[in-house]
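To: structure subgroup
Subject: Chain for Friday's discussion

All,

I'm putting the inputs and outputs inline so they're searchable in the archive.
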Amino acid sequence: MPHTWLVVGLGNPGPQYEQTRHNVGQMVVDELAERRSERFRAHKAGARVVETWLRPGADKLVLAKLNCFMNISGGPVANLAKFYGVDPAHVVVVHDELDIPFDSLRLKIGGGHGGHNGVRDIAKALDTPEFVRVRVGIGRPPGRQDPADWVLSPFGAAERKALPLVLSDAADAVEQLIDEGLLAAQQKHHAPRA
């Protein structure tokens, strides 16, 4: 029987943040919507959503970008999950990850928040850490740059060239984990690039 999956791309609202490393989760959700020729529309839970399918006859997807700042993502995610009747195990949160090199992905369910305030707030609001995370590597800042400044800065020129492939891979990973399960997606997307 098909399930409904809530796929949330984390980021901050406003044009000044759109192209920053911290918004890579929203960029991945944009890619998933573009693949289906869908546009986001306002939702009363404080988000913009697309209601679509993995493919016709398969699981339903609710793609979401929140209207709030990342650190307070929990309330809107919990409200969307309640509205669509989505169990936490079918919530997928796509977010940036400092501790993973740029151009790499890691997928997991549950565990700690690793200092990511958006993930921390979602775990608190859902009352469980047992949701899927698609962690898109942005790497650590060079030298002594403050990580807070790093995540809020735009991708560099070399990164921007590689970014379309990174976003495509992350969108593929989301589709595969929903279609084939987390283990299959980990086995494919945790492998080093050829």
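Points worth raising on Friday:
Helices lie at 24-35, 74-84, 117-126, 147-151, 157-180, 182-189.
Strands lie at 4-9, 41-43, 47-53, 60-66, 91-97, 105-109, 132-137.

D.
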